[in-house]
Every structure is written in structure tokens, then in C-alpha cells.
Backbone:
């Protein structure tokens, strides 16, 4: 049992269930995964592998745009760091931290360091190869990235996501025919896999096979139960196909939804790029960077943005993401105006110019330390205070264990929902409450699909649980 990372069979079984659901790579799968992972932690509070799973959950919740990016990636960093504290030689934890470092902080050096450490610890870990390949794709290091993508498949050939990842790499490398063939294989092998049709539509629309591309993106929306992430993809495909009215209808729907929930500005920028609206493309790319979306790290290799590649605003944004792709381009003029072709950006051997990458202001070999920015902490604390106050005054004569709190915002008819951790009946200590936390995250994911609600994640309000326990102790002491 020790090789499984825990001696507790129930914890191990819960972790395996979590991984099974996570590998579906759907919002519903993620919701089920977090319940299983937190159940595993409830059975074994020191279970590093379960914390690594929780980190992956938050990483991909951020990628899919279910909740605001920083809310997700900072939680992922915290969970991965905790996993490493429990087991510094766990490859999965280092790989998850590497993914989160790039996606959440644009910390490319730490991302590569952690992924390389993961592969050093376990060269056959497919997830580490796949997470690392994605960073390499972002940097335009396609030969290396595709090698690691193939190794990910070699060590886990049954993973649909690993197969998808190879097609993704071909797409960003402008090897569109190979990308299409790879995705055709994915959807044949797994005809109910939304990401397969999602990726297939990308290559088809670039190759102007619009009828097939629209069919593929429509199928992705259907299979994902009308996921907004897939809906934005469908809007991109319609825009690329010249169906501007239909694309603009989707834009209108997404804009309305953005009043009550997070909608990825980056994905919106791609729709405008295919519509040929340069100003709206930049407007949303800048919003994406301001939100610290992980997707902004892909902008240097996204074919949809080829038409603005020489624009100073584009190059300025690319520089702000600190993508090594920017600093390793030998032909880049200091005034940011010398790019004339895509080949200037998409390089495959960046080592010769590595010294141009700005340092992360760390001492050599110093282990990076992560913390929640003060602003985010203040915002979370404020949210917790508001929720606690509303909960207290609206439920003073009701059961204090009620878990869903509705807050009326200033804007008429706009409602925010905060799902607090459920109490676990018979829990002996705080660790057993993790199951309630996981259940709250599942409910949050489901509620986020309701257009009229502005959903706050359980992770952003977890301090409430601690605050309430402290308050309860004070009340008990005063009564005594």
C-alpha cells in the first residue's frame, strides 16, 4: 500500500475514483473528481497524491473558465505545494505545480523546473510529459513538445486527453493536416469525447473545411451538455466560416452571461479575430491578461492571431506574459516593430538566446515560494464577511448548518450564490470535513451553469468555516 502513497485502502480507492472522473475532462467529471479527492483526504489527511489531484482539478477549472482564473490557479498552487510538503518526491505534485506556475503566474522558469523535476522523479509519468508538452507548445518549442506529447501517449495510450494533446500540438505547430488526422482518430476511438470534436473543429476551420468544422463544434457543444467553453468554440467556428450573424448572436449571449458569471475574454478575442475586428480582438486580449487567464499564455502561438502579430499592442501583451518565445526571438527589435512573418515567432531551438529571458528575481536554486496576493486575500475576506453577515441576519432563527447563502446584489435581479462547505455528520475533526468541502465544490460547478446566478466558489469562502467555528467557541465560552 505504501507505493500508492497511502496505507489507507479507502483513501486510495477514493483517489482512483477521482482520477477516473477527472480524466473525462468535462465540467461534470471535474465536479465528481473533487468530491472523490476530498474524500481521500478525509480518510488520510497526509495523502499527497490526493492533494495533487485537487491541484489538477483547480488547474482545469481555471482552463475551462468555470470560475475566474486566479481564484482557481492560486488554489491549485496551494494544493500542489501542500502535496510536495507531504511528499517531495511525488512526480504528480511537481507536475501540477509546474502547470499552475505557468497558468496562474506566467512563471515559465518555475514551470519548466517543476515539470523537469517531475520527469526526473518518474520518467514514465504520462501526466508530467503532457503538462510539460503544453508549456513547450506555448513557447513555440514544438519539436520538444511533440516528443513529450508522444511519450505521454506511450505511457498511457488509453487516455483520450493524451491523444487530444498531440492533436493540439500539431495545431499550434501549423501542422493542420496532421492535427485533423489525429483528432479524427480521437473521435473514432471515443465518439463521446467533447474535446475530440472541439480540437477537430480547430484544424478544419483553419483549412476552410467549414461544413465539417461546424458539425464538429456543434457536436462538442452537445456532448458537453451545452458547456459555455464549447459554446465559445462554436462561435469561433461560425465566425471563421463567415456566418457572422450567427457568431454575433453567440457573442450577444455570452456578453449577457458575463454580467453574472465569468466568461473567458481570450476565447471571445478569438471570435473577434475570425470576424476581422482588430480593435475588439485587442480589447478582449487585454481583458484576458488583466484577469490573468491561463489562455493568454497561448497567444504567441495561436493561428487566429496571425493577422495582428506585427502590431505593437500584440507584442506588448506577449512581453507582459513573459513568454520566453518573445525574448528568444533573434529578430525582435527593441522598438517591438521588426516582426514580419510568423516564422520569426515560431522557433524550435531557443537555447541560444536563453539569457534574454528576464529573471524571476530569485537566488540560484532557491525553491520558489507562493502566496496569495494581498489584494485577493482582502477580496476573499470581504466576501466572507458579507456572506457571514447576510447569513447571520437572515437565518438567526433557523438551523445554522444551512449551506447555501443567497445575496441580493445592488443591481436589480442580479443574484450571487455562495456555496459553503457542508457539515459532515459525525466528523471527529477538521480533516473529516473535507468531504463537505468537495460536495460544496460540486454544487458550485452545477450552479455556475445557471445563467441568472453569479456563483462564488467554496474555496474563496473557506475562511467562513474557520470563522464560524471560532465564533461558536466564543459563544460556548460566554454561555459557560
Residues:
Amino acid at each position: 500500500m505504501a507505493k500508492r502513497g497511502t496505507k489507507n485502502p479507502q483513501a486510495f480507492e477514493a483517489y482512483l475514483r477521482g482520477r477516473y472522473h477527472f480524466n473525462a475532462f468535462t465540467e461534470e467529471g471535474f465536479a465528481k473528481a473533487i468530491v472523490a479527492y476530498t474524500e481521500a483526504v478525509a480518510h488520510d489527511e497526509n495523502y499527497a497524491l490526493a492533494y495533487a489531484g485537487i491541484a489538477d482539478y483547480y488547474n482545469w477549472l481555471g482552463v475551462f473558465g468555470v470560475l475566474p482564473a486566479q481564484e482557481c490557479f492560486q488554489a491549485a498552487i496551494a494544493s500542489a505545494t501542500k502535496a510536495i510538503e507531504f511528499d517531495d518526491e511525488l512526480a504528480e505534485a511537481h507536475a501540477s505545480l509546474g502547470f499552475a506556475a505557468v497558468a496562474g503566474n506566467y512563471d515559465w522558469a518555475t514551470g519548466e523546473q517543476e515539470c523537469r523535476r517531475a520527469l526526473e522523479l518518474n520518467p514514465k509519468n504520462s501526466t508530467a510529459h503532457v503538462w510539460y508538452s503544453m508549456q513547450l507548445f506555448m513557447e513555440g518549442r514544438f519539436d520538444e513538445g511533440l516528443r513529450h506529447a508522444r511519450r505521454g501517449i506511450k505511457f498511457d495510450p488509453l487516455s483520450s486527453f493524451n491523444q487530444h494533446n498531440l492533436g493540439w500540438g500539431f495545431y499550434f505547430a501549423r501542422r493542420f493536416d496532421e492535427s485533423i488526422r489525429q483528432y479524427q482518430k480521437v473521435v473514432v476511438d471515443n465518439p463521446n469525447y467533447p474535446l475530440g470534436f472541439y480540437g477537430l473543429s480547430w484544424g478544419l476551420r483553419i483549412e476552410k473545411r467549414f461544413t465539417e468544422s461546424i458539425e464538429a463544434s456543434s457536436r462538442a457543444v452537445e456532448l458537453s451538455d451545452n458547456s459555455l467553453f464549447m459554446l465559445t468554440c462554436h462561435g469561433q467556428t461560425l465566425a471563421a466560416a463567415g456566418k457572422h450573424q450567427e457568431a454575433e448572436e453567440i457573442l450577444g449571449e455570452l456578453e449577457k452571461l458575463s454580467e453574472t458569471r465569468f466568461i473567458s475574454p481570450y476565447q471571445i478575442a478569438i471570435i473577434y479575430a475570425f470576424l476581422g475586428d482588430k480593435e475588439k480582438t485587442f480589447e478582449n486580449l487585454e481583458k484576458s491578461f488583466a484577469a490573468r487567464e491561463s489562455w493568454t499564455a497561448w497567444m504567441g502561438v495561436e493561428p487566429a492571431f496571425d493577422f495582428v502579430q506585427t502590431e505593437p499592442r500584440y507584442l506588448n501583451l506577449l512581453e507582459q506574459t513573459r513568454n520566453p518565445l518573445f525574448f528568444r526571438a533573434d529578430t525582435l527589435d527593441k522598438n517591438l516593430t521588426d516582426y514580419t512573418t510568423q516564422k520569426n515567432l515560431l522557433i524550435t531551438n531557443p537555447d541560444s538566446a536563453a539569457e534574454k529571458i528576464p529573471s524571476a528575481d530569485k537566488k540560484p536554486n532557491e525553491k520558489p515560494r507562493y502566496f496569495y496576493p494581498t489584494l485577493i486575500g482582502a477580496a476573499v475576506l470581504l466576501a466572507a464577511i458579507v456572506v457571514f453577515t447576510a447569513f447571520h441576519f437572515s437565518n438567526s432563527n433557523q438551523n445554522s448548518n444551512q449551506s447555501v447563502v443567497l445575496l441580493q446584489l445592488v443591481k436589480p435581479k442580479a443574484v450571487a450564490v455562495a456555496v459553503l462547505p457542508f457539515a459532515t455528520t459525525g466528523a471527529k475533526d477538521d480533516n473529516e470535513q473535507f468531504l463537505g468541502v468537495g460536495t460544496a465544490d460540486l454544487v458550485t460547478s452545477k450552479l455556475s451553469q445557471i445563467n441568472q446566478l453569479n456563483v462564488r466558489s467554496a474555496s474563496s469562502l473557506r475562511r467562513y468555516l474557520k470563522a464560524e467555528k471560532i465564533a461558536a467557541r466564543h459563544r460556548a465560552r460566554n454561555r459557560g
